[in-house]
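Exercise 7b. Backbone tokens:
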């Protein structure tokens, strides 16, 4: 997901919000289990979900206005080009299967041009597990919008949401199904290890969680690194996979009210565009900003 390169958001330093105080606090662990074919089964019960904007999952804090910037490289054809991803938690809510989800906006640029914008519809249950209950993705060519080429919501056409980030994955946590879009096996993940330290351009972090993700039954697509109280700090594709993006955290900020308003307006626009192109999928439910 991407912001237009001509737009600028007003931001305030995250340090002033006290969210980095937990960076050097974490869990200990060891090497994760080998990939398995079975996945942890967590029942989807709408009454078990709470306001998704509480930031209670410390590995993936969903706090409206929180924004991560990661840079690295990607492949366009066989050419390696600079790559940038800006991820923003908005304050826009859409109800899916009776559960309130918060819209998380992603912006991807390659070689300085917008290549993709997308929304993840994320929910939080009472145990602070983060679920993904839908996705809407816009594709761009030469920086210009082409189409919404992917959209699905849990409970429609056989799609099923799943857990994106458990509360506190450890060596004893079974692999988990992330989500299953219509007609697909979907993605899955597993705990790999907790390592003593990982340094990225933004900072060095202690007790970093490393998750292995991939297609269900073939968990060797990429490694993702998470810092406690911060979120994802690194993405590393595996040599045997087709995944092409290498990313390192270069900044994490808390947007000003004006910046959050801009981010939320863009999320509402993408949601409305997807709903216009997929009216049966999105139905009569409207996304909105909530206090």
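Sequence design result:
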């Amino acid at each position: 997901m991407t912001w237009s390169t001509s737009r600028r958001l007003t931001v305030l330093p995250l340090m002033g919000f006290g969210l980095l105080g937990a960076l050097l606090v974490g869990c200990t662990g060891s090497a994760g289990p080998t990939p398995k074919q079975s996945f942890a089964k967590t029942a989807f019960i709408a009454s078990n979900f709470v306001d998704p904007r509480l930031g209670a999952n410390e590995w993936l804090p969903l706090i409206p206005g929180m924004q991560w910037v990661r840079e690295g490289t990607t492949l366009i054809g066989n050419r390696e080009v600079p790559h940038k991803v800006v991820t923003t938690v908005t304050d826009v809510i859409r109800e899916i299967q009776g559960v309130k989800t918060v819209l998380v906006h992603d912006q991807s640029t390659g070689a300085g041009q917008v290549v993709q914008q997308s929304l993840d519809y994320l929910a939080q249950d009472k145990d602070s597990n983060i679920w993904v209950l839908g996705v809407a993705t816009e594709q761009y060519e030469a920086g210009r919008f082409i189409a919404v080429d992917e959209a699905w919501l849990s409970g429609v056409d056989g799609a099923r949401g799943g857990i994106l980030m458990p509360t506190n994955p450890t060596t004893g946590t079974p692999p988990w199904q992330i989500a299953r879009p219509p007609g697909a096996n979907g993605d899955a993940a597993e705990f790999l290890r907790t390592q003593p330290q990982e340094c990225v351009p933004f900072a060095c972090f202690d007790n970093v969680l490393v998750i292995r993700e991939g297609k269900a039954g073939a968990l060797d697509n990429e490694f993702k690194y998470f810092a406690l109280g911060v979120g994802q700090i690194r993405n590393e594709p595996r040599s045997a996979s087709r995944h092409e993006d290498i990313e390192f955290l270069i900044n994490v900020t808390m947007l000003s009210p004006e910046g959050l308003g801009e981010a939320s307006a863009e999320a509402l626009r993408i949601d409305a565009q997807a709903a216009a192109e997929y009216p049966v999928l999105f139905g009569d439910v409207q996304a909105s900003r909530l206090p």
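Instructor comment: Residues 47 and 188 are 24 Å apart (CA to CA). The chain has one domain: 11-285.
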